[in-house]
Amino acid sequence: MPQTAIAAEQVSARVHRKPILHGVTARFATGRWTSIVGPNGAGKSSLLKVLCGLWPAHALQGGVQLQGQPLQRWPRRERARALAWLGQNETATDELTSYDVAMLGRLPHQAWLASPSDEDHAVVRRCLQATQAWDWRHRPLAELSGGERQRVLLARALAVQAKVLLMDEPLANLDPPHQADWMLIVRALVARGTTVVSVLHELSVALQADDMLILQAGRAVHHGACADPATHAALEAVFEHRIQVRQLDGQWLALPRTMRN
Ligand SMILES: Nc1ncnc2c1ncn2[C@@H]1O[C@H](COP(=O)(O)OP(=O)(O)OP(=O)(O)O)[C@@H](O)[C@H]1O
């Protein structure tokens, strides 16, 4: 049995009094890439926020285990080094240069008020180069296009060098070559033992992962290998058979079904 890197155990989450997640249990194996998919409003981003510790405790039941320890028991700094996060629509750092934004990923590694080390600079450089964002390192995030800023934010998440990386719609605004690059980056991370969990709407990319968690109306309805026909059947069902999963050149694809048949 592979070890679990991060797990949601019987998680129920509310916003005000509205239930959003209903008793979700999902265990993410170490050194694997899992995509979370499901219809709009299914609770994908909410589950990712819970996994990351961003959900208010008073509106949460159940818990998250990170490397076998309850998330809330992790010392903050250690947790920030162990768990990296790429969220959606982040604007808090808009006035900073791309370089400084990527350097924020190194904060958990730096002593209080200390300057970045040579290693911090080297890691930031490598990460900005990996996401092809190095060329605009001196430009403020606010001046970049949607895809350009996404690549800087990805570099920031990579710069943490965490063992667990959670990403919410990481492909937002990325053109196809950069989507392919993102997949290569994820595959390289996973090959080094990193656990990657990504919420994705691009189902054909999501199917390239190792495993797939399917959410519907705040519940986990399927969790299985991306190559498993049972996963394909669950995926088609959750999207009301408006997609079909097919194989082309050894890759699984989700094709829209435009004809009623
Ligand atoms: N702050 C909030 N106030 C009220 N309802 C919320 C809030 N945040 C999320 N919700 C509701 O929780 C449900 C799950 O939202 P969530 O963003 O997790 O879904 P999702 O699966 O990521 O959706 P999408 O695919 O559209 O991004 C939705 O019905 C949403 O309207």
From TrEMBL:
Matching Pfam families: ABC_tran
Entry keyword set: ATP-binding, Cell membrane, Membrane, Nucleotide-binding, Translocase, Transport
GO molecular function, one term: ATP binding
Membrane is among the record's keywords: yes
Gene3D superfamilies xref list: P-loop containing nucleotide triphosphate hydrolases
Keyword Transport attached: yes
Domain ABC transporter: 6-242
Job description of the protein: Part of the ABC transporter complex HmuTUV involved in hemin import. Responsible for energy coupling to the transport system.
Name used for this protein in its record: ABC transporter ATP-binding protein
Naturally occurring in which organism (per UniProt): Comamonas terrae
